[in-house]
């Protein structure tokens, strides 16, 4: 997936500047920086910023620290996902995973640090009112904790070597993958102080987009599209993981992906009608099109 260059550059510059504040006596800051600067597409924070820009371009900089906090959470989850006790992946985005580069102990600690510092980024944000900061922290905690992403990861592990139903798989991925996408949409609505109708539409869109993102990843791994996908497909097989193509079959999984993407685009079109700058959402439409896999 390609991303909007200007907005991504804006985010990358801010993230690079922020990381200069994290200089520890140990190698911890090196491990944090290594994981954060591993070449990710930044879809989650850029989704937040794109929506915020569309709703209220003046508020864009008010969402920056929350967007970085979201990327901190996502990055920590990848570090821990790659560990031998989890998915046991030695490669992440074309280079050594954090635990291969720095050892398991420091990789775990760098993930712990990113998780913890994420909430501090929002708590100390001088550009947001205290009430908004509290709401964001509470929402991010739900999205990433015992009822969100971490629970999804736990259910995913417990689902190995079991025949899951489609509903069970959707529940797992609505937490493991979808929860942070949902937070991105909800956070943009909070920061822009959007009305209830817009916030409801944001939640619907984010839920569809997050689900589509996961189905796309399952299909991409199954079809071995990309540098790492052959290894990840092999890892899925070894761990007997449930995936959309495994449950539905390839053709039905592609059909499901298209239906979900169409629903995401329909919600996005509604959002454009109530946006100050609808063109800021065009990049999201591009992402939706890029998620369409053809057999």
In summary, what is this structure?
The chain has 295 residues and is an all-alpha fold. The chain contains 15 helices and two strands.
Word description of this protein:
With 295 residues, the chain is an all-alpha fold. It has one domain: Farnesyl Diphosphate Synthase, CATH 1.10.600.10. 69% of the residues lie in helices and 1% in strands. It has 15 helices and 2 strands. The chain has a two-stranded antiparallel ribbon. Helix 7 packs antiparallel against helix 10. The two termini are 18 Å apart. The relative contact order is 0.12. The model has no long low-confidence stretch (mean pLDDT 91).
Beta-strand percent range: under 5%
- Mean pLDDT over all positions: 91
| Annotated CATH homologous superfamily | Farnesyl Diphosphate Synthase
Strands, total number: 2
Strand order of the largest sheet: 1-2
Taking all Cα atoms into account, the compactness measure Rg is 18 Å
CATH topology: Farnesyl Diphosphate Synthase
Question: Structural class of the secondary elements?
Answer: mainly alpha
Instruction: Work out the count of structural domains.
Output: 1
Helix count from the secondary structure assignment:
15
Instruction: Give a short account of the largest sheet.
Output: 2 strands, antiparallel
The low-pLDDT segments are none
CATH architectural name: Orthogonal Bundle
Percentage of helical residues?
55-70%
First-last Cα distance: 18 Å
CATH class: Mainly Alpha
Query: How would you describe the shape?
Result: globular
Q: What sequence of helices (H) and strands (E) makes up the elements?
A: HHHHEEHHHHHHHHHHH
Cofactor: Mg(2+)
InterPro entries: Isoprenoid_synthase_dom_sf, Polyprenyl_synt, Polyprenyl_synt_CS, Prenyl_diphosphate_synthase
Protein name: Farnesyl diphosphate synthase
Keywords: Isoprene biosynthesis, Magnesium, Metal-binding, Transferase
